[in-house]
Amino acid sequence: MKKTVFMINAHPDDLIGSAGLAWMLVESGDYHLHVIDFSRGERGLQQKGISMEACAAMRTQEEKTACGMLGIEPIFLHEIDGEIHASRETCQELADLISAEKPCAIFTHWPVDRHVDHVMCGAATLAALRLCSLRPEVFFHHETHQTVNMPFLRYVSFDQHIMDLKMELIRKYVCQGGEEMAERKLCEARFFGWKAAGVHPYAEAYGSYQMPGDPSPFFDAFL
User: Fold this and answer.
1) What is the 3-state secondary structure (H, E, C) of 133-176?
2) Do the beta carbons of residue 10 and residue 118 sit within 8 Å?
């Protein structure tokens, strides 16, 4: 029986932090992957004079295209980019999704982050779990310069094939500088690959509330 994994993000394109893992989950054939976005990235093009409505439509389509590569349809909650809150309504909406799909693992934003929307997304995820009777494993992905003081307890290493797929997916976020993001994530993956000291040249880094050396049913089974 396939297991379910949630990747819960504040905005379309936040998937870039765990796109390598997403590809590995899909290609394994053993997991149902769900990508959940709190907002549609409405304010992502304000500096270019593009309205929130037009930006939301553009970024929604880019997210659907990127997730379509993985064979999935993203789920959007009802928060607004730049105004995300861990409200009771949003936490309950997310709790209902978790209760319905019963994920074995959830990946979301590190609650200590320079982007307040990321902080609220991480907090809302933890609050949603408090509303559920389920206790999936929770991990936090790395968002380059925005993630602050996160201890990297897990590395997911991968080969050139997965790295190429990851970069192709990241390039779908054209309005957010997809090509530049892809090159940045390539450098980052090389660094984490070195840190992981695994058999593959690339890796992604993840944090959690676990202690070093604690077992992880998800990672023990997946890796």
Assistant:
1) CCCCEEEEECCHHHECCCCCCEEEEECHHHHHHHHHHHCCCHHH
2) yes
170's CB contacts (< 8 A; 6+ apart) are: 16, 19, 66, 178, 181, 182, 185
Helical ranges in the chain per DSSP H: 19-28, 52-69, 88-101, 116-130, 160-170, 178-196, 217-222
β-pair type (137-141, 202-207):
antiparallel
Q: What is the pTM of this model?
A: 0.96
Question: Which pLDDT score, from 0 to 100, does residue 183 have?
Answer: 96
**DSSP label at 177?**
T
Asked if 13 and 151 count as a contact pair (C-beta separation under 8 A), the reply is no
**For residues 84 and 10, is the Cβ–Cβ distance under 8 A?**
yes
Across the beta sheet with 75-76, the strand order is: 75-76, 31-37, 3-9, 105-109, 137-141, 202-207, 154-158
Q: How many other C-beta atoms are found inside a 10 Å radius of the C-beta of residue 48?
A: 8
pLDDT digits 0-9 by tens, 157-209: 999 999 999 999 999 999 999 999 999 999 999 999 999 998 999 999 999 98
CA distance 88 to 51: 28
